């Protein structure tokens, strides 16, 4: 099967012309996925105002971990500890983006994106996490970045929290401590005040489910705690209230002047039943309700956890001999404060998994992973990325978007991350080109055929970066970064050209029809 290529125009900004176009008779991108109803490629385009972007996060790219008064974050501590990250790598220097602002913006311009999603390092702005430690040098770095983006005509989408909590706040318990609600609100208030004249799209949290489960329950991410069965629920509970408070601060103090939008970014795979058994079907139905719904349901629906989540955690807690559920409860006034605190929905999506029903042994072990009587797996036939968890399953995105519309209504959706990893240095990344073409095509079908209100798309990532516990071994970049060179040179991969082509065409223009209109 030949690759569906849309490289009709030479993009001279990259210094050389593109791969010549191949036959476009192919209706399918992958050999593995050739269901005519599901997988046929759609030659169509997006609405004119569709927001094309690329994404990064502070700790993954900035480096300069202790420059200009920055305080340590939990990821500085965690990576410096040793034994936590692949080959004990750290984000001390990462991509040196703190010192390579000009080049990063040039890359965004080469791609032709309209928007750049990046995150603020809380301890760069408030070194000890609290307002009293305000660090002007850190603030000025982000002002320089924002000014440069404005000059380049690129709209910023700014994440307040992409996992780098100030270490001083972890020392008093981090997200397991309720006080974090007011510390986060103060931080958000300061960011809205300092940067809000240049920012119209704000994200409070990136993937609450990941940093609470990995950081407070499994221990594979900072702060490395293994509070199995309650750490993630307790930390997650705090983040939901912190999100809601920050949204209200924006709503009350800034919205009238700044006219921006605030929301959170949720992470979810798509979930397919492993077999046709009723148990597996019910488990697959439960999965998005729990994984996406844990955080999205309180914020988008009624200020409370999904009923199925409350039921399963309460039941597992009871079978464990507890008299109270390990899942905390919101008070009535908290529910009112939380419900409706969103202006759009941010979605990070990478892959699809099978779900099967699996009842757990008694007495129950307290663990988020075991609370919902399900087991996740993937299909060996699905194309593989370098990350063990990441299989390439484009049609899962369309199904997930349909699920969101069905369950949360006509909410505007930004896909805030989507992309795939490779392991070695190689700019010839044909599988990533197919990944982007097919996933973006499925998003297009969701929009045009299913009527899902998708407003924008951000590729993860602009460049190779510090992939958390995997260090630099899993590379997600449209641009390759050479981490052995102190200058951290960036080189566009073939996928950068392919993505630029999609953006330039605002979707997929059949080469045949293009020739016709040009004649
Ligand atoms: C996103 O997380 C993050 O927002 C981003 O920072 C990150 O670079 C990107 O995805 C790529 O991973 O090894 O089986 O324990 C996505 C969620 C979190 C999914 C870590 C995989 C490890 C699974 N990812 N998780 S495993």
From TrEMBL:
A GO molecular function term, named singly, is: hydrolase activity, hydrolyzing O-glycosyl compounds
State the EC number(s): 3.2.1.21
The record ties this protein, via InterPro entries, to: GH (IPR017853), GH_1_N_CS (IPR033132), Glyco_hydro_1 (IPR001360), Glyco_hydro_1_AS (IPR018120)
Catalytic site positions: 417 (nucleophile)
Q: What is one Pfam family matched by this protein? A: Glyco_hydro_1
Q: Which UniProt keywords apply?
A: Glycoprotein, Glycosidase, Hydrolase, Signal
Asked if the keyword Signal belongs to this entry, the reply reads yes
Please give the biological process terms from Gene Ontology that the record holds. Answer: carbohydrate metabolic process
The kind of enzyme this is, by top-level EC class, is hydrolase
Please list which residues make up the signal peptide.
Answer: 1-21
Question: Domain of life, per the record?
Answer: Eukaryota
Q: Does the keyword Hydrolase apply?
A: yes
Family named by the database record:
Belongs to the glycosyl hydrolase 1 family.
Q: Tell me the subunit arrangement.
A: Homodimer.
This chain belongs to which protein, by name? beta-glucosidase
User: Can you name the source organism?
Assistant: Patiria miniata
């Amino acid at each position: 099967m030949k690759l569906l290529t849309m490289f009709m125009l030479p993009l001279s900004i990259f210094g050389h012309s593109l791969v010549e176009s191949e036959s476009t008779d192919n209706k399918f991108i992958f050999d593995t996925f050739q269901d005519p109803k599901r997988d046929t490629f759609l030659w169509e385009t997006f609405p004119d105002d569709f927001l094309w972007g690329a994404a990064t996060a502070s700790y993954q790219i900035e480096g300069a971990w202790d420059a200009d008064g920055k305080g340590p974050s939990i990821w500085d501590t965690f990576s410096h500890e040793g034994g936590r990250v692949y080959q004990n790598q750290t984000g001390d220097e990462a991509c040196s983006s703190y010192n390579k602002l000009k080049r990063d913006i040039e890359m965004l311009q080469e791609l032709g994106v309209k928007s750049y999603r990046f995150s603020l390092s809380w301890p760069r702005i408030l070194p000890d996490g609290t307002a009293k430690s305000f660090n002007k040098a850190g603030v000025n770095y982000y002002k320089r970045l924002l000014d440069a983006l404005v000059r380049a005509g690129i709209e910023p989408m700014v994440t307040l929290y992409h996992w780098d909590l100030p270490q001083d706040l972890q020392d008093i318990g981090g997200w397991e401590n309720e006080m974090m609600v007011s510390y986060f609100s103060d931080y958000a208030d300061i960011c809205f005040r300092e940067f809000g004249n240049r920012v119209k799209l704000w994200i409070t949290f990136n993937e609450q489910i990941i940093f609470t489960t990995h950081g407070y329950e499994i221990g594979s991410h900072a702060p490395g705690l293994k509070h199995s069965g309650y750490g993630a629920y307790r930390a997650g509970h705090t983040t939901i209230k912190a999100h809601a408070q920050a949204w209200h601060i924006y709503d009350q103090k800034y919205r009238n002047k700044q006219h921006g939008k605030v929301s959170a970014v949720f992470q979810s795979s798509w979930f397919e039943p492993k077999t046709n058994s009723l148990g597996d079907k019910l488990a697959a139905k439960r999965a998005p309700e729990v994984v996406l719904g844990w955080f999205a349901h309180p914020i988008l629906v009624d200020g409370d956890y999904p009923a199925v989540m409350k039921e399963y955690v309460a039941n597992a807690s009871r079978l464990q001999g507890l008299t109270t559920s390990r899942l905390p409860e919101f008070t009535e006034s908290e529910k009112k404060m939380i419900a409706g605190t969103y202006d759009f929905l941010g979605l990070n999506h990478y892959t699809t998994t099978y779900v099967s029903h699996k009842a757990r042994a008694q007495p129950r072990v307290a663990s988020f992973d075991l609370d919902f009587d399900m087991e996740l797996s993937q299909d060996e036939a699905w194309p593989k990325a370098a990350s063990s968890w990441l299989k390439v399953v484009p049609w899962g995105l369309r199904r997930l978007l349909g699920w969101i519309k069905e369950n949360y209504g006509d909410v505007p959706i930004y896909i805030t991350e989507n992309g795939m990893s490779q392991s070695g240095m190689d700019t010839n990344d044909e599988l990533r080109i197919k990944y982007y073409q097919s996933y973006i095509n499925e998003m297009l079908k969701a929009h045009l055929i299913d009527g899902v209100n998708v407003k924008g798309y951000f590729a993860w990532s602009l460049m190779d970066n510090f992939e958390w516990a995997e260090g630099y071994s899993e590379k997600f970049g449209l641009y390759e970064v050479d981490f052995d060179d102190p200058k951290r040179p960036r080189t566009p991969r073939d996928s950068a050209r392919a993505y630029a082509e999609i953006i330039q065409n605002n979707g997929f223009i059949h080469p045949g029809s293009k020739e016709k209109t040009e004649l």
